[in-house]
């Protein structure tokens, strides 16, 4: 089944292809993008299939994301009319509203996760925090666009591109990546919950049997039933959250909201990436690439030499430069923390594996009961889920660090 676009279209509209051509690099040296074909044939085939892969997110945002398309269209319409400040303000405000709508989608996704926080370990605080962060990045970008429109007095096409296109694209890609990671985390938690439900069903049956023999109270039976029903209700909530997350990913990346793409797994974390991270060495790149700083430096050049406005902007740039250095160090420490958490989870799984193997042997010779065996199996499955979740968290932390170096780091 191929990708289904709005109105059943799979081919990129010609107008969109033209708007993409000025930003999209060729993916083979001999390929030169032209109207109607912004990518080479192999790349077009990848993004038009009905499969979502993490590595394709940037391409899909470039090609299909409606917010980015609107922002690019606005930029294309205004870059040659940048001296018409009133017109420009209105068009920037329109782009800001579109970006705010996209932020609202991610915020809604975070809300569905918040409802499950703390219940049966269905959703980790880290998963929820990442989605909140992504939605806030987009919200801040929309707010910055609004503020820049309100205070607009002099602007250049280069400033517009940084503010409207480059930073918006980075925030959307980051948000979609976090959403895809969150989706996989949710599936892991659903799988873990299924194991818990199997165990709770057995506990309920066992408690009923004990009560019939006078070995358990009716209150114990009631508690076991309530625990089972609560977990089953949690499964329904997770099913609903899965649908919402899938719909949000679809609308972010080019499918109809009710599309059914195959969503592949996020790549495993590669700890060797950490060796290439050095905040002291990377901070200059993070400063040079930061979209907010780029815009402010360009704005500084447009202000009257020696004016109060220029002096204020100089202090703002200095403060933001220091903030980027500090933030990059914090992001690196988070990477190290996530690596430690992953290693701890792996060690715990190894210990649990020994217990699981012993339980398997006992089960094969009949020296362990079904309930005790299921308890051990559930414990082992939980440790497996913890390792996979820690791996995703480490991957997310490394991605966030790299994105900061590439310029996508929010500064006040």
UniProtKB/TrEMBL annotation:
Coiled-coil stretches noted in the UniProt entry, renumbered to this chain: 183-210, 332-359
Keyword Transferase: no
Signal peptide: 1-28
SUPFAM superfamilies linked: Outer membrane efflux proteins (OEP)
Keyword annotations from UniProtKB, A to Z: Coiled coil, Signal
Protein name per UniProt: TolC family protein
Lineage: Bacteria, Bacillati, Bacillota, Clostridia, Lachnospirales
């Amino acid at each position: 089944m191929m990708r289904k676009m709005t109105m059943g279209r799979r081919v990129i509209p010609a107008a969109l292809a033209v708007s993409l051509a000025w930003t999209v690099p060729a993916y083979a040296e001999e390929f030169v993008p032209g109207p109607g074909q912004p990518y080479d044939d192999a790349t077009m085939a990848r993004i038009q299939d009905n499969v979502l892969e993490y590595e394709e997110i940037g391409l899909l945002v470039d090609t299909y994301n409606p917010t980015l398309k609107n922002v690019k269209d606005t930029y294309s319409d205004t870059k040659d009319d940048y001296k018409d400040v009133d017109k420009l303000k209105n068009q920037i405000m329109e782009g800001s509203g579109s970006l705010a709508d996209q932020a609202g989608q991610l915020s809604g996704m975070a809300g569905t996760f918040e409802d499950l926080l703390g219940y049966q370990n269905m959703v980790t605080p880290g998963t929820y925090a990442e989605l909140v962060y992504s939605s806030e990045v987009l919200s801040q970008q929309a707010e910055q666009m609004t503020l820049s429109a309100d205070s607009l007095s002099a602007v250049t096409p280069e400033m517009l591109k940084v503010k409207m296109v480059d930073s918006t694209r980075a925030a959307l890609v980051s948000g979609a990546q976090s959403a895809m990671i969150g989706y996989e985390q949710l599936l892991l938690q659903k799988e873990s919950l299924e194991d818990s439900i199997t165990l709770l069903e057995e506990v309920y049956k066992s408690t009923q049997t004990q009560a019939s023999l006078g070995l358990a109270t009716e209150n114990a039976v009631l508690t076991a039933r309530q625990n089972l029903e609560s977990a089953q209700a949690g499964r329904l909530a997770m099913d609903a959250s899965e649908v919402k997350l899938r719909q949000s990913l679809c609308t972010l990346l080019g499918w109809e909201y009710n599309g059914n793409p195959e969503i592949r797994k996020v790549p495993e974390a590669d700890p060797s990436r950490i060796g290439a991270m050095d905040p002291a060495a990377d901070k200059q790149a993070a400063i040079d690439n930061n979209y907010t700083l780029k815009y402010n430096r360009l704005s500084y050049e447009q202000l009257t030499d020696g004016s109060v406005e220029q002096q204020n902007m100089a202090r703002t740039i200095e403060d933001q430069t220091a903030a980027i250095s500090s933030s990059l160090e914090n992001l690196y420490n988070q990477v190290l923390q996530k690596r430690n958490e992953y290693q701890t989870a792996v060690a715990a799984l190894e210990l649990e594996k020994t217990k699981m193997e012993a339980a398997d042997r006992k089960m094969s010779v009949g020296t362990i009961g079904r309930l005790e065996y299921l308890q051990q199996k559930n414990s082992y499955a939980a440790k497996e889920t913890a390792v996979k979740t820690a791996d995703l968290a480490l991957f997310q932390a490394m991605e966030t660090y790299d994105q900061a170096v590439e310029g996508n780091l929010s500064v006040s």
